[in-house]
Design goal:
Glutamine Phosphoribosylpyrophosphate, subunit 1, domain 1, Rossmann fold, binds 5-amino-5-deoxy-1-O-phosphono-D-mannitol, 3 domains, alpha/beta, 606 residues, seven-stranded antiparallel sheet, globular, 20 helices
């Protein structure tokens, strides 16, 4: 997820572009860049403050494109910052998304004599347009010709020095909004930076290409027919707009789960072979074939992701896995033998305990790996190899979409390790298919947000909650409790359902509700027995159960249904339901769920 912003009109573009970018900083802050026809590109690592310092000229340009990067392909440095240009310095491109076939395209372009400056996927677009212009196509047709060659996602801004007032924008999977002003027009990744200038917005659909000048706007599709995209008057305020119209980032980020799953999977599944292709692990593939033990470290929600990873990797790949709180691992004397790998899971890539755990593992000579969302973060840089989440920045302090993404990546790691060991091709293909269908299933859970809200409201006065589950649902129970206490400040405990008689059952009475995660899996009957025990002690039970399971109603007070999914992946759906439960429980009390008291997004101290 990057921030894109463009202006074409009659005013000086540079202050408008800088101000617009500053309002998009929540979308990315690895690097920033700007291009205005007639002037050199200005780029910098960091965000808008750094870019402003580098803008030392008096820029008279009245159009331009600007970008804030959340790195995916290529390190977050100046060279990889957008905009990216062609060989002649005439065409400049800004991109939010991922071009999957950029390696093939780059090889062809290199063979054709083009020279590249960056490691990014985006730069191929500028060179392809350059080629099409040299083939005598006009700017608009050169862009369309290029877009037809791309596979992947994009929200694009393209500027051409020889047609300085025109900006072409295109959308495929990444949002693009056009703001229609009086003698000036704006383009951005969301409405936030446009609202100050105009409330009249046109939202592009996938496959749309819009040609924007100060006084005109036209939309074509890749099939070349002109289309009519009516504009709407937006009544959101700026805060609402940056949250995509949602009241909180936490809700917006949960709603992004289907897209996050797709981003985690993109280009990483070889469906017909039932294998995972993880570019970030290729360099250590040999060492990975020889590991006989994996230790996963993380904190908070990332630690719970690790617990799910343990179940996935042990059952699918047969590699022994231990999961440890990073804060414990770093202070004891862990036994690390030569063929042990240590895997850090971290959204921010900056959590101090996790980083120190990795450093400790390195001191013992272990192969270190990372599942990290923030490209170029310290953990990403210090581990030997790893897999990026590509989930986009997570602003809400409560980790939501990052966890969904971490579990999907862990499934890919299990598939990757499993297929070089005992996992059969048929089982690999089945998992690959299950992963492919996950975004649709996640959407179905999210569609029930209001239903879940109603259930959460029934328990609005409860001060204590228990969350229980077995097997994959056990870490989900731990996470459900963490999410609830984190955003609502009520007491919540997660337990393995089989532990009830070993202590927690004593707490149960009519004021102590239990959330039971009970999908129809191999331990279903066992969890149902625990639910009955709770109800016998007058405790209320909210079940997270599989759609179509009518019998579960007999042992529950309320049921939240999730779609049927494979045993390994059903946990992703339970987690989304639990996140919605915690969110609505707290948000309806008027609490600031995005910034819970006493907590920070990234814990970079002990
Ligand atoms: O950035 P990280 O994934 O390393 O962060 C780890 C934890 O601090 C984080 O998951 C924390 O527990 C969340 N606030 C939970 O929602």
């Amino acid at each position: 997820m990057c921030g894109i912003f463009a202006y074409t009109g009659s005013k000086k573009a540079s202050p408008i572009l800088l101000e617009g970018l500053s309002m998009l900083e929540y979308r990315g802050y690895d690097s920033a860049g700007i291009y205005m026809p007639g002037f050199d590109v200005v780029k910098t690592p960091g965000a808008v403050a750094e870019l402003t310092k580098r803008m030392t000229k008096d820029y008279s340009a009245t159009s331009g494109i600007a970008h804030l990067r959340w790195a995916t392909h290529g390190a977050p440095n100046e060279v990889n910052a957008h905009p990216h240009g062609d060989c002649d310095g005439d065409v400049f491109v800004i991109h939010n998304g991922i071009i999957e076939n950029f390696r093939e395209l780059k090889e062809e372009l290199l063979a054709g004599g083009h020279t590249f400056k960056s490691e990014t996927d985006t730069e191929v677009i500028a060179h392809l347009i350059e080629g099409a212009l040299k083939d005598k196509l006009n700017f608009e047709d050169a862009v369309i010709d290029t877009l037809k060659k791309l596979r992947g996602t994009y929200g694009l801004l393209i500027s051409y020095a020889k047609d300085p007032d025109t900006i072409i924008t295109a959308r495929m999977g990444s949002p693009v909004v056009v703001g229609l002003g009086d003698g000036e027009n704006f383009i951005a990744s969301d409405a936030t930076p446009i609202l100050k200038h105009t409330k009249q917005m046109m939202f592009l659909s996938d496959g749309d290409v819009a040609i924007i000048t100060p006084t005109t706007h036209r939309v074509r599709t890749l099939l070349e027919t002109e289309v009519d995209r009516p504009s709407e008057t937006i009544t959101w305020d700026v805060g609402e707009a940056s949250r995509g119209g949602y009241p909180h980032f936490m809700l917006k980020e949960m709603m992004e789960s289907p897209e996050v799953i797709e981003n985690a999977l993109r280009g990483r599944l070889i469906m017909e072979e039932g294998k995972a292709k993880l570019g970030g692990l290729e360099a250590v593939e040999k060492e990975l074939q020889n590991i006989d033990r994996l230790i996963i470290v993380g904190c908070g929600t990332a630690y719970y992701a690790g617990l799910i990873g343990e179940y996935l990797i042990e059952s699918l790949a047969g590699v022994p896995v231990e999961v440890e709180l990073a804060s414990e691992f770093r202070y004891r004397k862990p036994v690390i033998r030569p063929n042990t790998a240590v895997l850090a899971i971290s959204q921010s890539g900056e959590t101090l305990d996790t980083l120190e755990a990795i450093r400790e593992a390195k001191r013992h000579g272990a192969l270190t790996l990372g599942i990290v969302n923030t490209v170029g973060s310290t953990i990403a840089r210090e581990t030997d190899a790893g897999v990026y989440n590509h989930a986009g920045p997570e602003i809400g302090v409560a980790s939501t979409k990052a966890l969904v993404s971490q579990v999907v990546i862990l499934s890919l790691v299990a598939l990757f390790l499993g297929r070089t060991r005992s996992l059969s091709k048929d089982d690999g293909v089945a998992l690959a298919n299950a992963l492919k269908s996950l975004p649709e299933l996640a959407k179905k859970v999210l569609e029930q947000s209001e239903e879940i809200r109603k259930v959460a409201n029934v328990y609005k006065d409860s001060r204590d909650f228990l969350f229980i589950g077995r097997k994959f649902s056990y870490p989900a129970a731990l996470e459900g409790a963490l999410k609830l206490k984190e955003v609502s400040y009520v007491h919540a405990e997660g337990y393995g359902a089989g532990e009830m008689k070993h202590g927690p059952l004593a707490m149960i009475d009519e004021k102590f509700p239990t959330v039971a995660i009970v999908p129809q899996d191999s331990v279903y009957e066992k969890t149902v027995s625990n639910m009955i025990e709770i109800r016998t002690r007058k405790g209320s039970v909210i079940a997270i159960a599989t759609a179509g399971d009518e019998k579960i109603k007999e042992v529950s007070d309320h049921v939240i249904y999730i779609p049927k999914a494979s045993e390994e992946l059903s946990v992703v759906l339970s987690i989304i339901a639990l996140q919605l439960f915690a969110y609505h429980f707290a948000a309806d009390k008027g609490l600031n769920v995005d910034r819970p008291r006493n907590l920070a997004k990234s814990v970079t101290v002990e």
